[in-house]
Inverse folding.
């Protein structure tokens, strides 16, 4: 019952946030406003869905509520792939490929690297402190490699690369909106269809194997889905480190349930709600263009600290 | 019946089991005994395919264990592990219901719910069924885990130290359940440290030491002063009390 009311409330809140985003401060031709804002809203919702689902699924695979794909360096890996592509093909070559093909290639590099690096790590890793440390080291390594590559890239081609320290929610590359939205929804439906199996996998590797789940194989598939979702959100808005953590902590707190049938949709609704509401607030009401990411990340960072400190005590 | 042939297992590159060839009879209760670190848990985990053997074969009713698909294996074999930490915050009933997953894949039928309730009742958990596991005592948690294994209703049941944390009444209850399951035709293998309990309930005993089989046979043969004193490298006496063998170390 608590889960159902949490879902309904989050759904209503998201609807209100979306309406406010579309209508607040709109002037002039409504058709144009709706089309322009509608496309950006779709991009925001796509990012929210991708971040929420990738975080929830990754936390189930890692059997841990502090780790997220971003903390483990997934998005840094995507940016590295991006720089690598421009470096090897040159900016002209990448530009010739077009947005779709480039995104496809970046995602493929990301999938491969994520499976290689994190597949074995998840299988062994039960020691959380070591996992966090590994993630931080990976993140630094990927970012430094990216920087190195960016320096070696011809300055004229450098504009092809969008790597940034913070996410930017207000200039989303429009060409990618619809394809990434479609992709994210498809992956989301696939993940929802596996919600019962995810419940079992949350019990851990040994327990799920005794219940007949081919844990290693399913982990590889789910990890690929996580990598795909992180590719989507990073390609759209850049690296977001703590947002996923914020969303998952809220979802677990509000759901009061271990069932992925509740956790997955609730986390997605909450993520959409937070992102759209704060974007509305900062862009339309306060007229501060760039602060959304900073504020969301700061909140998420606080949650991260609080969770680590609470672990210490128990 | 479960048969192993020249089974050896290595953990982190270190050989832990060597040349294990045993035959664990169907419809019987087999006790696995031996000192700490002998390799009992390792053997049980390997039989449950949670660990991969370095070499050798395991046959279940003559069929190579490696050839059994995961889903089918979960319908044939269940295992209680020695360390069974549970991640999410579950109630006892949630946990026991997971035992039905191999049968219903998460969509519990009325028959599944009945089976879950029966397992809860058999382990005397009816009063705690809707309590969260993290609010239970060690012995109550252990019973919940055993109930989950029972709910799985498999032909082979592997229990690693099921009597951990249990008081004497519940220890007896669990051993009686293990006995009933064996009498119903299931192959039950239990790791036990209490040799008096092993003598009272087991048909067949496998004694392990330093990763090898030290003795295997009917419990009357293996539970003897000579074998046990050698196995544990300490003086063990076996006395008869009321027609039962009692193992003493003083
Ligand atoms: N992950 C591991 N890496 C290396 N060696 C291990 C590992 N796990 C266990 N061992 C070693 O393997 C041997 C057998 O361990 P096992 O847990 O099977 O013993 P056991 O007979 O179940 O003991 P106990 O009665 O204490 O439960 C021990 O010597 C142990 O130190
Ligand atoms: Mg053991």
């Amino acid at each position: 019952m608590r889960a159902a009311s949490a879902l309904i409330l989050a759904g209503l809140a998201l609807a209100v946030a979306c309406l406010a985003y579309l209508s607040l401060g709109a002037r002039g031709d409504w058709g144009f406003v709706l089309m322009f804002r509608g496309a950006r809203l779709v991009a925001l919702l796509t990012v929210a869905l991708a971040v929420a689902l990738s975080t929830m699924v990754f936390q189930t695979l890692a059997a841990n509520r502090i780790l997220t794909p971003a903390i483990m360096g997934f998005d840094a890996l995507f940016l590295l792939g991006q720089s690598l592509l421009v470096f090897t093909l040159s900016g002209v070559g990448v530009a010739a490929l077009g947005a779709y093909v480039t995104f496809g290639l970046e995602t493929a590099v990301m999938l491969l690297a994520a499976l290689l690096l994190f597949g074995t790590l998840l299988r062994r890793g039960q020691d959380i402190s070591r996992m966090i440390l590994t993630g931080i080291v990976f993140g630094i390594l990927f970012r430094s490699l990216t920087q190195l590559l960016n320096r070696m890239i011809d300055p004229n081609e450098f504009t092809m690369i969008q790597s940034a320290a913070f996410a930017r929610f207000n200039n989303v590359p429009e060409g990618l909106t619809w394809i990434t939205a479609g992709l994210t929804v498809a992956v989301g439906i696939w993940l929802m269809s596996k919600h019962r199996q995810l419940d079992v996998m949350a019990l851990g590797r040994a327990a799920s194997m005794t219940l007949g789940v081919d844990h290693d194989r399913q982990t590889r598939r789910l990890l690929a889905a996580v990598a795909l979702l992180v590719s989507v959100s990073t390609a759209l808005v850049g690296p977001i480190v703590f947002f996923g953590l914020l969303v998952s902590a809220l979802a677990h707190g509000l759901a009061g349930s271990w069932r992925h049938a509740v956790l997955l949709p609730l986390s997605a609704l909450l993520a959409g709600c937070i992102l759209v509401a704060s974007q509305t607030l900062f862009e339309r009401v306060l007229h501060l263009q760039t602060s959304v990411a900073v504020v969301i990340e700061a909140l998420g960072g606080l949650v991260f600290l609080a969770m680590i400190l609470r672990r210490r005590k128990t | 019946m479960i048969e192993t042939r020249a089974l050896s297992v290595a953990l982190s590159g270190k050989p832990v089991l060597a040349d294990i060839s045993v035959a664990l009879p169907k419809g019987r209760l087999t006790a696995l005994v031996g000192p700490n670190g002998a390799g009992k848990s390792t053997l049980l985990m390997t039989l449950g395919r949670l660990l991969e053997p370095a070499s050798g074969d395991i046959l279940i009713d003559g069929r190579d264990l490696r050839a059994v698909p995961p889903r089918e294996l979960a319908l044939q074999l269940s295992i209680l592990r020695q360390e069974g930490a549970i991640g999410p915050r579950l109630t006892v009933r949630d946990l026991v219901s997971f035992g039905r997953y191999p049968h219903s894949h998460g969509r519990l039928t009325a028959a599944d719910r009945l089976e879950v309730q029966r397992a809860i009742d058999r382990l005397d958990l009816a009063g705690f069924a809707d309590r969260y596991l993290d609010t239970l005592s060690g012995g109550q948690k252990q019973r919940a885990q055993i109930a989950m294994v029972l709910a799985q209703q498999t032909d082979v049941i592997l229990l690693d130290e099921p009597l951990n944390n249990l008081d004497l009444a519940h220890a007896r209850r669990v051993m009686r359940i293990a006995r009933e399951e064996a009498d119903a035709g299931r192959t039950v293998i239990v790791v036990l440290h209490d040799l008096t309990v092993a003598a009272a309930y087991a048909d067949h005993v496998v004694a392990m030491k330093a990763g090898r089989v030290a003795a295997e046979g009917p419990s009357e043969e293996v539970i003897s002063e000579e074998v046990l004193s050698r196995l544990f490298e300490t003086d063990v006496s076996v006395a008869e009390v009321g027609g039962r063998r009692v193992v003493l170390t003083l």
Observations:
- Residues 2-313 of chain A form a domain with the ABC transporter involved in vitamin B12 uptake, BtuC fold (CATH 1.10.3470.10).
- Chain A touches chain B at residues 63, 196-197, 199-200, 202-204, 206-207, 209-214, 258 (CB under 8 Å).
- Chain A has one domain: 2-313.
